[in-house]
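Q: Given only this backbone (202 positions), what sequence would you predict?
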């Protein structure tokens, strides 16, 4: 075995876009490695993985029956990401290192070719806050989160339950999204607000 191979695997795990740029001599062992990683994950969890995906072995993906995680084709999941179904990721979606996606009961859906940067947190559930009981005893609600196609979500973004983000929107680094984001909008801040347009509305 190439003495650099384990380091190369780690590099791919944290920067999975490099998997698709490998030279043929590296692509051959990397494909076999990914087949093993993905086969094990599908044996252990209720996960469906499309063609040509990359899933870092350091990613944590949990999907009980009824809380499926479904990856389209060419999806990238980087190291230290945490995914808990129900989650549906369209073709070409990338989830970078340290991102957290928890689908609650209603789930998270991400449209094709969207990018979710490092340490983004998306929670499709919430706790009650009534004063007559402790936080631990509060009921949990879930509305779901829907993210459109070709959306760019910057690093360290927080997205709360019940949010819809339209196609081609951009969410600035460090933003907290508490309201729906129109298609094509650029939003930033805490709470996030529209600061411009990637695609101007008609």
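A: Predicted residues:
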């Amino acid at each position: 075995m190439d003495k650099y191979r384990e380091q190369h695997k780690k590099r791919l795990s944290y920067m999975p876009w490099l998997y698709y740029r490998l030279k043929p001599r590296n692509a051959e062992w990397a494909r076999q490695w990914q087949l093993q990683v993905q086969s094990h994950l599908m044996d252990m969890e209720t996960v469906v993985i499309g063609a040509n995906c990359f899933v870092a072995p350091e990613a944590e993906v949990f999907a009980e029956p009824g809380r499926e995680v479904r990856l389209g084709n060419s999806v990238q999941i980087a190291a230290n990401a945490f995914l808990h179904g129900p989650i549906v990721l369209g073709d070409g979606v990338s989830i970078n290192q340290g991102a957290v996606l928890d689908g609650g009961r209603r789930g998270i859906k991400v449209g094709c070719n969207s990018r979710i940067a490092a340490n983004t947190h998306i929670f499709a559930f919430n706790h009650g806050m009534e004063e007559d009981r402790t936080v631990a005893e509060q009921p949990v609600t879930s509305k779901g989160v829907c993210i459109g196609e070709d959306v760019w979500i910057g690093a360290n973004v927080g997205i709360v339950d019940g949010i819809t983000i339209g196609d081609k929107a951009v969410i600035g680094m460090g933003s907290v999204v508490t309201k729906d984001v129109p298609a094509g909008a650029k939003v930033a801040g805490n709470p996030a607000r529209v600061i411009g347009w990637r695609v101007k509305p008609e």
